[in-house]
Amino acid sequence: xxxxxxxxxxxxxxAFALMSNAAVAQSYSGSFPVNxxxxxxxxxxxxxxxxxxxxxxxxxxxxxxxxxxxxTTQTGTFQVINHLLVATFQTGSDTxxxxxxxxxxxxxxxxxxxxxxxxxxxxxxxxxFGTQGGCSK
Length: 137
Prior knowledge:
By secondary structure, the chain is of the alpha+beta class. The chain is built from one helix and nine strands. An eight-stranded antiparallel barrel has the order 1-2-3-4-5-6-8-9. The protein is globular and about 40 Å long. The N and C termini lie far apart (61 Å).
């Protein structure tokens, strides 16, 4: 084989490898059941829905939280950086203060691992995420 043919084949193989990696990339779009360890008098289950639009990075977009843990559906944003998901929701308290709640969890290949829930200065707890698409309607 001559040099040109070898270079052409190497470039073709590299392009094919890059395309197949892009096809394997998983989206975080979907709904994930959430169970948070909280004191007994608090509801501890919800559904975290993510729309992975890539608006703020490779995996990022809008988030919503619904179910017994919240009185009305909350909207927020999420981002996955270095295999770590951070979903943030801003709400108001009964006294008019701004309240943030966060979900933080390891993330890989479209799946979320056990993580943490934090409402700074108020509540926190270990969090278990169910399978993507697992929220009941």
